[in-house]
Amino acid sequence: MKLSLGPAQYFWPRDRALAFYRAAVHWPLDIIYLGETVCSKRRELGTGDWIDLASELAESGKQIVLSSLALIEAESELGVLKRLIEHGDCWIEANDLSAVQLCRERRVPFVGGPSLNVYNHAALAMLCDDGLRRWVPGVEQGAALIRELRDAARTAGLGLPEIEVIAYGRLPLSWSARCFTARAHDLPKDQCGFRCIDYPDGLPLATRDGAPFLRINGIQILGEEVTDLGPELPGLRELGVDILRLYPNADGMADVVAHFDRARASSLPLPAIGARNGYWHGEPGMRRAG
Amino acid sequence: MQLVCPAGNLPALQAAIDAGADAVYAGFRDQTNARAFAGLNFSDDELRAGIAYAHARGRKVYLALNTYPDSARLAQWFAAVDKAASLGCDAIIAAEMAVLDYAARTHPRLPRHLSVQGSATTAPALRYMHERFGIARAVLPRVLAIGQVERLCESAPVPIEVFAFGSLCIMVEGRCQLSSYVTGASPNRHGVCSPAKFVRWHESADGHRSVHLNDVLIDEYEPEEAAGYPTVCKGRFDVRGEIFHALEEPTSLNTLELLPRLAQAGVAALKIEGRQRGVAYVSSVTRTWRAAIDTYYAADASAWSVQAAWLKSLAAHAEGQQTTLGPYHRHWH
């Protein structure tokens, strides 16, 4: 099993982001995803910086993938997407249909990111025709759905791409035209002051009775719980999962990667270091019990 | 500009047609559509009757098949496409690639509209759906500002339909997991958001009420305070020590004042949300929009203005009696 570092979901200062990746390149990872997937206003690292960083990190021999925005609204955002694709040296993680089409038109291989809606083998086969080489199922696609999809593909005589499952981190749940971080500061989105930079792990949102519930991350909402599929590793192997995706937290990621590196080398499941992911078991994503 | 109105059941369909809808959209009574609520939607016989009613008056019926089947359930969605074709629907509204592909291959003369659940926000995304599945129209997610809608109308390979009025999804449609995170039931897979069976209201002796969704506190209300349906996105939460509608207030989208710009941009159809609403809503909202559109095309376009009576009527049917221009207006973002 390979380990991947998913695209950083939060907005970090330039120096912090560069230091993070220059350390990560020495961790026991096989794949590193780079790029801004949430908000095009976040430019501590610009498009050129991400491309340069991709070239620099690629010298390590790890596979570097450039991830696209999940929600594209403006022409300028399409322009960035074209630059990433036409850079040419990297696969693209396509996080919406715009990226799928632009990769398809330019015959660039792509990873189908978790915010593409792929729920069955027939859709996946069509995307494979378009150039999809790896599939990251969405957060609500649990073990049973993936097993059904795998079996249906086999029955239909269809090949499957690599499958990469979100094994660790806060789950991305939704995106909006509105910026919720700006809203929480009573600021218009156009004058947000880049407040996301003050919340390197997102801005906590709790229920009125004080229970931690969600994380606000600009225009994105994440689940509060840092989920961990480490204890499910034997099942993931049986299912044919090729890659475990670890979403970066602001701190402690070296230890997380080391933990999963031990886990993949062990035949026994390691103890949990995060919350149970209910989605994987066909339950509400946030439920811990059971 | 066509007026496309919601039909949650046969009386609503007839009310929408009578009030001047050019087309209505409806769904089968199962999880193949994104309003799979108990007591809503159409049996085969009801849909047949509805189509006859609409066609007799020169109007159209579109069938929403806009959820995402997993591999094991694909056959059920394909059967629904077959049924839509055999009953004589004028188009299907679908989002999922395998469903669109099946429809294109099996019933090429049945027009395919891309559902809002398809989450296509750009010209390349629409190009994909057009080249791949020959969509004849696309419904845009409620995320673009009016200027972006205008530009997309110029570059899109297919005619555009936009939401004009009704409850407002704050999140990009087709990619929101807030309901499934809390309840396990999702709009994409099960055709429901925050289903009623997970909702629990509690009223204390002093009249204070609270509402939980699968044991997650969504909001609390003072004795006289108006309370809305508890979706996660419209609850009040604690962020930075303040309690407020952190994601969105209970309010409805109303684009009436944008009607001239939408018409001039070449928008093909205006969609009214609300298959879960009753006959009174459908009838009144349809009548108001019919009047507004007809007045626009009858008059010198530059002389058209929003009439106070229209706004009053629409506000009466809005969530929380409030309306917003929502994402069409930059300041909302």
Notes on the protein architecture:
The complex is a heterodimer of chains A (290) and B (333). Chain A has a single domain (2-172, 226-281), classed as TIM Barrel (Alpha-Beta Barrel). Chain A is 32% helix and 21% strand. Chain A is built from 9 helices and 11 strands. In chain A, helix 3 (75-87) packs across helix 4. The longest helix of chain A is centred in the first third of the chain and has 13 residues, at 75-87. Chain A is globular. With 333 residues, chain B is an alpha/beta fold. The model of chain B has no long low-confidence stretch (mean pLDDT 95). In chain B, the strands form 3 sheets. Chain B has an 8-stranded parallel beta barrel, surrounded by 6 helices. A 3-stranded antiparallel beta sheet of chain B has the order 8-9-10, with no helix packed on it. In chain B, strands 11-12 form a two-stranded antiparallel ribbon. At the A-B interface, helix 4, helix 5, helix 6, strand 7 and helix 7 of A face helix 4, helix 5, helix 7, strand 10 and strand 11 of B.
